[in-house]
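Thread: "does anyone have the structure for this chain?"

Original post by V.I.:
We have the sequence but no experimental structure in hand. Need at least a predicted one for the grant figures.
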Amino acid sequence: MKRDRFLARIAYRLGIQPVVAMLGPRQCGKTTLSRMYAEAHPETQLTRFDLEDPTDLAALAEPKLALEPLKGLVIIDEIQRLPELFP
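Reply from O.Q.:
Generated one for you, tokens below.
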């Protein structure tokens, strides 16, 4: 399924601010859309965290240490599992 309109909207928002949140019900395509965006920008360094993966969840136990050195696109999937990222 093509999602050009949504991909353009993400690109537009990232041009305005450094953080974009994708909200929606489970299984509506947020993860797929984030992957599509990353694939459309292969020149951009990508770091992806899936917080359903215990290793990624543990990596963000110290969010400043994990996130501060990163460059490029950072995708945090299933972020609702770590609400303390948003004080």
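V.I.: this helps a lot. The two ends are 36 Å apart (CA to CA).
O.Q.: and The beta strands are 46-50, 73-77.
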